[in-house]
Amino acid sequence: MKPELIITARGHAGTMATLQSDFNSHLLSEAPDRDAFLRQHAPTVRAMATFGPMPVDGKLMDALPKLEIISNFGVGVDAINLDDAKKRKIIVTNTPDVLNDCVADTALALVLNTVRKFPQSEIYLRGGNWASRGPYPLATSIGGKTLGILGLGRIGEAIAKRALACGMKIRYHNRKRKDVAYPYDPDPVALAKNSDVLIIVMPASAETNRLVGAKVLDALGPDGYLVNIARGSIVDEPVLLRYLQEKKIAGAGLDVFADEPRVPPEFFTLDNAVLFPHVGSATAETRKAMGDLQIENLRLHFAGKPVKTRVV
Ligand code: 8YV
How many CB atoms lie within 10 A of CB 200? Predict the structure, then answer.
């Protein structure tokens, strides 16, 4: 008998195909009647595979009393209420490390594109402006500038390596100081003050909600750039929008937004923002590796073995 599994929403196609062949899978997002769907599967479902931002809270867990494991596709587990899972002794797993290099590549690209304005310069060329109006205005160099990393974990370290290769200096802030050579700042405001480019890499949680707001952006100042590859919830998005419109910071590079896939259209009119549609880990190789790890955790659990990457 294949174990019964709920898949919260459609995700990476190859991973979905394997989940659907190895498990008795049921897709929650496409259920015409969510309550009836949950009632139908409550007696048998022992596992959940989560994709994307659909919230998984105590109420949903209680609707599935046989649930033993939630296996997330992605390193960030902010959509899952970890305290609720812990209380119910439900295992939660994620997909760390396999995406570090890919996300760090995206981070470096976003830093470069934001500060050097490459996307805007291409739009300028495609609009026929080069011949009619002359060269694109000069941008700013990243060499010699300081990259402040808000959240120096494994992805942050991979970003630091790349930024150092471009001649940037590194500083960081974490809740706890780490045993690393980079200078430490005791809080996000101090880090912003000491940085030319502030990059958000920390996990999202209740404590980090809207952590980057007016105070941090004021400290970054009119010559400073903000880059976010973590979660949109960490930034006070309306405040950031206003700071970009009023040029209170020099620019922003955003791979993540507060209410994905919806992005406030006011961002589209800004010349000082570079916007990516959450492509941090979006390569065929990395998404396959993430899916393989998500599935491996489920298989290990049902083989009675410890999972590989447990969060709680
Ligand atoms: C993915 C991510 O875009 O790992 C994460 O936390 O945000 C990304 O790698 C996401 O998990 C895809 O659903």
Answer: 28
Distance between CA atoms of 5 and 251, rounded to whole angstroms? 44
Question: Band of the pLDDT at 117, cuts 50, 70, 90?
Answer: very high
SS3 assignment, position 266: helix
Annotated catalytic residue 310: no
Distance CA 4, CA 2 (A): 6
Separation of alpha carbons 275 and 121, rounded Å: 14
Residues flanking ligand 1, CB < 6 Å: 51-52, 73-76, 99, 278, 280-281
Element containing residue 23 per DSSP (H, E)? none
Q: Is the peptide bond before 261 cis (omega within 30 degrees of 0)?
A: yes
Q: What radius of gyration, in Å, describes the C-alpha atoms of the chain? A: 21
For ligand 1, the distance from its centroid to the CA atom of residue 76, given in whole angstroms, is 7
- pLDDT tens-digit series, residues 6-53: 999 999 999 999 999 999 999 999 999 999 999 999 999 999 999 999
Q: What is the pLDDT of residue 189?
A: 98
Total-model pTM? 0.97
Q: Name residue 133's beta-bridge partners.
A: none
- Per the annotation, the verdict on 260 as an active-site residue is yes
Spatial separation of the C-alpha atoms in residues 40 and 243, rounded to whole Å: 49
Closest CA to 295 of 66, 14, 30: 14
By alpha-carbon position, which residue is closest to atom 11 of ligand 1? 74
Residue minimizing CA distance to atom 5 of ligand 1: 74
